Known about the structure:
Elements: H1 7-23, E1 31-36, H2 38-46, E2 52-58, E3 86-92, H3 100-113, E4 117-122, H4 138-156
Parallel strand pairs: 1-2, 2-3, 3-4
Helix pairs in contact: 1-2
Amino acid sequence: MKIAKTVVAYDADAQAGLTAVNAHPACNGRLGTFGVCLGGHLAYRAALDPRVSAAACFYPTDIHSGTLGEGRSDDSLERMADLQAETLFVWGRQDPHVPYTGRAVIRARLEEVGASYEWHEMNAQHAYLRDEGPRYDPALFLQSMALTFDFYRRTLG
């Protein structure tokens, strides 16, 4: 689905999800997003919605290359100026999907638009949070979740 679905459809799904959560009686109106890999990119795109206060994006693929969605052509990097949510970016330094040069492009754009963000790079591979396979790192998983919970307490609490 990563390249079969349109970016417009991804965005519509995010809008619908945010609207549903915001309408829930337990919601205090402070919305946050979370995603890993492709989901990290989608959490970032969902955070372009001004209703979102915080986004946690773990090794989000394709932001630097603009290759999300049908036609492998998205505007995520260009739209970074629309980002009002504070954003947590966490990366694996040995991630071949978002190499150093790609991370540098993203960080430079964040600085260019004056975004409010946290940036962490772990000595890890892509998918180090996934609890299967050789890339899984349980210690970094726990550290990363602590970063995430602290981030949400500060931004959404």
